[in-house]
Amino acid sequence: MAHITSYANNTKWRKLQQKMAGLASKAPIWQIKYLGLDHFGKSDGEWFYHFRLEEYEKIEWCDLTPAKSPDAISLSDIALICKMIGLETEVMENSVRVIGYRLT
Prior knowledge:
Number of domains: 1
Pfam families: DUF6678
Number of strands: 6
Strand order of the largest sheet: 2-3-5-4
Number of helices: 2
Radius of gyration: 13 Å
Structural class: alpha+beta
């Protein structure tokens, strides 16, 4: 019988939000898939107000894609930041997927 395993907590999501908000225009664009929904939200680049604490416990995964600005951080930098925070990730072709939950 499968069950859901958590890979992130509020502290890790908050650290990600704070680090990315501090990068301003260099920060990646994020897109969230919430637990129990078949679709995912719109892409967003605003980390300070839009990436909300009250929604962290519902995040199945969050894709982080480098912004299209010339000074944006790279895919490898995004992966490194996530690793330093202790987040479970999957590096894909154009984004880093941060895992909130997995079906195990």
